[in-house]
Specification:
Helices cover 33% and strands 26% of the residues. It is α+β, with helices and mostly antiparallel strands.
Length: 409
């Protein structure tokens, strides 16, 4: 059983964090650097963007995850993405890891790095290195330290995104905590923007990597805000074993419990990302059921929540299902269009707006009432099987354009 508790990345035993303002972009006042530290080496796994233009920290972290069994620290900066920065950018990521490693008395290969912000600019390394030195004395296992770190990784996000849960492994209570950021440039093809997960369970590295990929595919890879896959998308998991629970080394109840916790954490943060989409006013969920296979269900669910016309209709509280079924039709999925039912639902009720592929007469007044709340779901029944999939998105508003027109300033 999974129990959600108050906490973030410092909730599991042996993890510390810090967040502060280093001054990466002059004239700002926001916290812009964070660090996570495990008191002992932690089994590491990660998933990364599949964008062919990937950031220097992604290149460094892939190398660490592929070549190292463990890692012990993560350094994160906002403001500058360190993407499209060539050899100098990679050298700067490595230099950041080396500096953190030197001060923490760790090999550089035990330090992961992550960046988010504007593409195409080199990191101000004097500020970054000074920030690393400032972060280390601030490291703490407190709730406030987790809050500071989660705040320090935000860009256009409107609020911190974090969660912690408890679960059982071999009769021992283990804890998993996480923080993430992401609001725009959200259309993951691996995981999400930046997400850092800590856990005090012990688990085999290959199993951890396998389960992370599986969970990411069903959660972060089913989120979209604007159809743009970031250059910096990264999900990292550190599991340090300090709960003293038996090590998870094979399939079974313990691995199932761990996977359920990971799924709970990633689902929550994925939905938070969609709901906090740049300029968004509504969380828009597409739940496809009755599909003949997994790929059909996933393709249709994502097509619905990524359609700009459907997203605009959700913003306008317009029950224009022509937008939705059109998006399904061009998705590339093979299905019988004449069997489709679509019901729109919210806490205000539900209304069937497509039956057997046809849009019946309905009450515009009732539809408007149902489309008014902040969370709207399109329930799509294909009547062609028993497979289902869920995707999360948001509405498309005037403010999305305003935010991205001014992003570099």
């Amino acid at each position: 059983m999974i129990k959600v508790i108050d906490g973030g990345v410092t909730a599991p035993k042996g993890f510390q964090a810090a967040g502060l303002r280093a001054g990466i972009k002059p004239g700002k006042t926001n916290k812009d650097m964070a660090m996570i530290y495990s008191e002992v080496p932690a089994t590491v796994a990660g998933t990364f963007t599949k964008n062919r233009v990937y950031a220097a920290p992604v290149k460094w972290d892939r190398k660490v995850v592929m070549e190292q069994e463990t890692a012990q620290a993560v350094v994160v900066n906002t403001g500058i993405a360190n993407a499209a920065t060539g050899e100098e950018g990679f050298a700067n990521s490595k230099r950041t890891a080396e500096e953190a490693g030197k001060l923490l008395r760790l090999p550089a290969e035990q330090v992961l790095v992550a960046s988010t912000g504007v593409i195409g600019f080199q990191l101000p390394m004097d500020v970054i290195l000074e920030g690393v030195a400032k972060l280390i004395p601030e490291l703490a296992g407190s709730r406030q330290a987790a809050l500071d770190a989660s705040e320090a990784i935000l860009t256009t996000d409107t609020h911190k995104k974090e969660i912690a849960v408890e679960f059982q492994v071999g009769g021992v209570t283990c804890t998993m905590g996480a923080m993430s950021k992401g609001s725009g440039m959200i259309h993951p093809n691996m995981g999400t923007m930046l997400c850092f997960i800590t856990c005090d369970a012990a688990i085999d590295k290959a199993l951890l990597q396998q389960k992370l990929r599986e969970v990411v595919d069903e959660t972060y890879n089913m989120v979209s805000v604007d159809g743009d896959t970031s250059t910096n998308d990264t999900v990292l998991v550190l599991a340090n074993g300090m709960s003293q629970a038996p090590k998870i080394e094979a399939e079974g109840d313990d691995l199932d419990s761990f996977t359920a916790a990971l799924t709970e954490v990633c689902t929550y943060l994925a939905k938070q990302t969609a709901q906090d989409g740049e300029g968004a006013t509504r969380l828009f969920t597409a739940h496809v059921t009755g599909a003949p296979d997994r790929e059909t269900a996933r393709t249709l669910a994502k097509a619905i929540i990524t359609s700009n016309l459907t997203k605009a209709a959700i913003f306008g509280k317009d029950a224009n299902m022509g937008r939705l079924i059109c998006a399904m039709g061009y998705s590339g999925a093979e299905y019988d269009t004449e069997l489709v039912d679509v019901t729109m639902s919210s806490k205000a009720g539900s209304i069937k707006l497509v039956k057997g592929g046809i849009m019946p007469e309905f009450s515009e007044e009732e539809a408007l009432k149902i489309l008014e709340p902040e969370e709207i779901t399109a329930e799509v029944e294909l009547h062609q099987g028993n497979v289902e999939a869920t995707a999360w998105g948001c509405d498309l508003t005037y403010d999305y354009v305003k935010i991205n027109a001014d992003y570099r300033s």
